[in-house]
Amino acid sequence: QTTTKPPPTPSPLRFSKFFQPNMRILVTGGAGFIGSHLVDKLMENEKNEVIVVDNFFTGSKDNLKKWIGHPRFELRRHDVTEPLLVEVDKIYHLACPASPIFYKYNPVKTIKTNVIGTLNMLGLAKRVGARILLTSTSEVYGDPLVHPQTESYWGNVNPIGVRSCYDEGKRVAETLMFDYHRQHGIEIRIARIFNTYGPRMNIDDGRVVSNFIAQALRDEPLTVQAPGTQTRSFCYVSDMVDGLIRLMEGDNTGPINIGNPGEFTMIELAELVKELISPKVEIKMVENTPDDPRQRKPDITKAKELLGWEPKVKLRDGLPLMEEDFRLRLGVSKKI
Ligand code: NAD
Ligand code: UDP
Ligand code: UDP
């Protein structure tokens, strides 16, 4: 039996029983690193229409170039701190700078994006009856005193530090999500994302994996911030996108940790990058920034049980995929 694709449905017919309407999905921050990979995956489904809104602060049109002009795709320059009127069925709300150097650059804007931006997207979800997923962060656990972090841990966050615009901003965003859920019955999903890496990361955004790979390719020393024994757990972006879609499509509000439990010290990460990419490169210890969490590793029991999800790509296998993309963008070919 063959299935024929229904024509795009004009809005008055969206609820007609004779038409199976496409699913309209809004992705805020869709021109960014994780957002653009999410868009790629959503666009694979012919029943999805994807609308991206982005202010291009840290994202770029380049990340979406293969979809520009596609009949099921639309890209709008828009800042989520302003109200937005669109008719959609689902909202993936990612808009927010994620790298410390960018979110600290204009902290007031960062907190506005997290608070007013999330409020606007919730107001939109309420008006149109859409389900909304927030990409929260492992930073809500602050400098955690519980290890590994479970979703029930309330965190250890400095409310007045240089990271607070992001950490506390995301904590308020989570609160808003639950208040709209309880007060207005909005369908919500919250993902607590742990450090994610992969192709299309901003080359100079200061995050550790992108820094080390760019440094290795430029023959510059890998800058390990002291003491270097602090840990992070790195999730490859395709695993992350898979987890986000499962969360959106499942029945659980979350919050649910989505991350890879493989935990590494920054010295171990530098050594791995050195081994895989540039065995001669030097490793240099440099000064750290304030409030740097000393350890971070997700407990993903909930994601496994409730979403049937666990990451597949090991750091050792993911780094070379990112190296390839960075080589192309930096114009550094592999020496044979
Ligand atoms: P990114 O910086 O690549 O993407 C964020 C996107 O949001 C960019 O395209 C940027 O231009 C856009 N944006 C920022 N402020 C905006 C505003 N006011 N209005 C409209 N668009 C705006 O970052 P990413 O790594 O892709 O992160 C995406 C989401 O995932 C963020 O919400 C981030 O907090 C969350 N997250 C990411 C990580 C990670 O390791 N990458 C970890 C935890 C949480
Ligand atoms: N909002 C939006 N798009 C919509 C509906 C609402 O951007 O389609 C914004 C609206 O401007 C408001 C926020 O979402 O600032 C919260 O909306 P809500 O209706 O919950 O609250 P109210 O407008 O009553 O303060
Ligand atoms: N880091 C590092 N060298 C760098 C950049 C970061 O050693 O060039 C360390 C940083 O001190 C932190 C860890 O890497 O302990 C992760 O930092 P990143 O900014 O990537 O993410 P986040 O702090 O948000 O987890």
The assigned structural class equals: alpha/beta
Gross geometry? globular
Main beta-sheet strand count, sense and barrel state: 7 strands, parallel
Average pLDDT rating? 94
Which sequence of SSEs, written as H and E, runs from N to C?
EHEEEHHEHEEHEEEHEEHEHH
Structure description:
A seven-stranded parallel sheet has the order 3-2-1-4-5-6-11, with helices on both faces. The protein is α/β, with parallel strands linked by helices and 336 residues long. Helix 1 packs across helix 6 (237-249). Helices cover 35% and strands 17% of the residues. Helix 4 (164-184) links the parallel strand 5 (131-137) and strand 6 (188-193). It has helices at residues 33-43, 100-105, 107-128, 164-184, 208-217, 237-249, 266-277, 301-307, 315-330; strands at 23-28, 48-54, 73-77, 90-93, 131-137, 188-193, 196-197, 222-225, 231-233, 235-236, 256-258, 263-265, 283-286. It is globular. It binds nicotinamide-adenine-dinucleotide and uridine-5'-diphosphate (2 copies). One uridine-5'-diphosphate (UDP) binds next to helix 3. Residues 100, 195, 207-208, 211, 223-225, 230, 232, 266, 288, 292 line the site of one uridine-5'-diphosphate (UDP).
What is the compact description of this entry?
Pathway: Nucleotide-sugar biosynthesis; UDP-alpha-D-xylose biosynthesis; UDP-alpha-D-xylose from UDP-alpha-D-glucuronate: step 1/1. This protein has 336 residues and is an alpha/beta fold.
